[in-house]
Amino acid sequence: MVLLDRLRALEEAGFRVSLMSGPGELLEQTGRCAGAETYVIPIQRTISPLSDCIALLRIWRLIRRLKPDLVEFSTPKAGLLGSIAALLCRVPARIYLLRGLKLETSTGMKRLLLLGAERISARCAHVVLCNSRSLRQRAKECGIAPEAKLIVLGEGSSNGVDTRRFSPGPSHIREQLRIPHDAPVIGFVGRLTCDKGLPELLEAFRTVLRQVPNAYLLLVGWFDAAEDALDRGMRERIESHPRVIQTGFAQDTSPFYRAMDMLVLPSWREGFPNAVLEASASGIPVVATNCTGSRDAVVPGVTGMLIPPGNSTAICEAVLGLLDDEQRLREMGNAARAWVIENYESRHVLGQAVALYSRLIRPAAARMAPEAHAIAERPTGWSVLP
Question: Is 134 in contact with 296 (CB distance < 8 Å)?
């Protein structure tokens, strides 16, 4: 969902790009739009020794056939299997893209397994590309990789945001969803799961309605069948609530932001949330948690507000505070857009990635990590196997 602009930037820079993923319409659609070759490798999300061994063999065979100059893998399972396969094939340049740490919300043996997988993936790579500074710091604290191997490009973000597409303006969404023009709309964009803070958001919204009875909660996302999935009772509560609107997966989220008065993202963990940049570029303030990744995407008191994770009372107070002060709501939205244009315009962010990959593709693998670190520290501005 977030790869299209990245793939196009690499194609325009002269890279021949191959995209590997599990099967699905999104893979085929992304490949068609970006003009990239696509390859299907079924990979189970959960631990499955036999299935994982088969997937590892398939990735190894694919890499041997493609003979890429550079590979990039992401997510815990694909990162682990792909990085091992790339090392076995001696790919000259190997990147592990760290988009977040699932282990932050895990405990016990599961946390140890996830930590081990992250460390192996990092060890197999020449560079661990973190998409936010707080994520890099967290990875360093967890001992995932040496400090010199952990890099961040510019101010972070793996994709940036198209500020022309995501911009203030009129939207047909309110009319389409039958939301009154003057009703306050609190928005959320993303997977509807526990780790995204949906239980706390729903609890906070219940309290908000007592003081602002004409408010709506607009959930732009889908019920993800992941390990942190919402239980049946929570799903039924969302689907039956007269003031909660759940859209399902939206191919284009830009008009939905224009229908919101603010975005609330009460996540427990992030890498660098794209939804926050999109909302900010659309000229609305964001209430986010002070968790890894999210804290990098908000300037507290300027572009939005940061609150503790898992605290429905804090969500409620932040939302009501903004709804009670229209001028502050408007000023934060204007400041948010200006901040994103200055730091996270997609062409700037993707240009930094293309520059890094162009340098990494040089044959001297032994110098890759130090060189990449130097590039990342400059104020300038994938073949890709995610």
Answer: yes
How many of the other CB atoms lie within 10 Å of CB of 50?
Answer: 8
pTM: 0.88
Helix 198-211 and helix 312-323, axial crossing angle in degrees, nearest 10: 40
Is residue 160 left, alpha or beta, with left meaning phi > 0 and alpha meaning psi from -120 to 50?
A: left
pLDDT digits (tens, 9 = 90+) for 319-362: 999 999 999 999 999 999 999 999 999 999 999 999 999 999 87
For 57, residues 6+ apart whose C-beta sits below 8 A from its C-beta are none
CA distance 186 to 202: 11
In angstroms, rounded to a whole number, what is the distance separating the alpha carbons of residues 43 and 41?
6
Of 313, 283, 122, residue with least CA distance to 205: 313
Which amino acid belongs to residue 151? I
Both tokens of residue 382?
Answer: 């994938």
- Name the amino acid, one letter, at 302: V
**In the block, residue with structure tokens 């997977």:** 191
d(CA 327, CA 193): 33
Rounded Cα distance between 273 and 288, Å, is: 10
